[in-house]
Amino acid sequence: MSELGQFLRNARLEKKLSLEELQEMTKIRVRYLEAIEEGDYKVLPGSFYVRAFIKSYAEAMGLDPNEVLDMYQKVNPVPEEPEHAPEPLRPRSRSGGGPRSSDQTSKWASTVMVVCFVALIVGIVYFFAYQGSSGSTGGNTPEASPNRLTEKQSESPSPSSSPEASATPQPTPTPTPTPEASLKQTETTKSLDTYTVSGTNKLEIELKAKDKVWYQIDQLLDTKGTKKKLIKTETLGQGLSASYTVEGGAFINVGKQNSIEVTVNGQKIDLGNASNPKKVKFLLESDSGLSTDSTGTDSSSNSDTTNSSTNKTNSSGSKNSSSNSNSTSGTKSGR
């Protein structure tokens, strides 16, 4: 162990520091710190790092780094010569290969330039040759185009047959002109309005409460509207709405006619502006017998057939109740 290493080690032991703790303080590896204390400077990367590590060691121990470096220089008086010694070796290693490499690079550069120049000339020649060939082919293409036109013209009669084939399915859209549902007021009183609905077999009813209002909606079970089945009765709050789908005719009873809006199949029903109760009956034209072409005998026969159908429905109570319950649906929403 060298005198400098023993001096630094004693300073470390006086402070009761381990090499690991000193490593945390100086950021120098433990094996380098051990080499400094042992005086084995060959382990360190070089004389520059030896001086730097010794200086950091001394500063960590609270010693004067200049005095510690003087102690190191006394032990190693010529630390800088090995650093300058390798400098002549570098030119020697490069002296032999430097000119050769420069000559080789110049040769490579000249060959690359020649190759690029030749490639440029070939590219120019190829470009003009391609332009000439494209021009010649361009002159020949118009001659072939009439043949294509004639072929298309000869094939054009074939589409004439396709319209005939396509025209045949056109009559299929005939179901589209379905009659639109229309409402016609046939009778009106102070408390009851009667409407005839044509063009549909169900009613889309929407109720909108302008104010808090009571209402009741029934499904009509006969053509005269005397037999009814309750669908819904409730008090509708202001701003709320309710919608129903009724198979067949319907009967609506409202507490205040000016507090509710009634829309049937997209058509708004005028209930009036009074605050009185109002009843509205909606009969399907196919069931009411109010068509202008129907006669008295026809209406009576219709009533007989409907009465017989109602008798049948009354004789099957449970089945009627289930079918009637399935024939109507309603939803309510708040707005």
UniProtKB/TrEMBL annotation:
Comp. bias regions, Low complexity: 155-169
UniProt keyword annotation of Iron present: no
Protein keywords: Membrane, Transmembrane, Transmembrane helix
Any Pfam family matching the protein: HTH_25
Keyword Transmembrane helix listed: yes
Comp. bias regions, Basic and acidic residues: 81-90
PROSITE patterns: HTH_CROC1 (PS50943)
Annotated region described as Disordered, given as residue ranges: 78-105, 135-193, 288-335
Polar residues composition-biased segments: 135-148, 183-193
HTH cro/C1-type domain boundaries: 8-68
Segments crossing the lipid bilayer: 108-129
Protein name in UniProt: HTH cro/C1-type domain-containing protein
Organism: Paenibacillus larvae subsp. pulvifaciens
High-level lineage: Bacteria, Bacillati, Bacillota, Bacilli, Bacillales
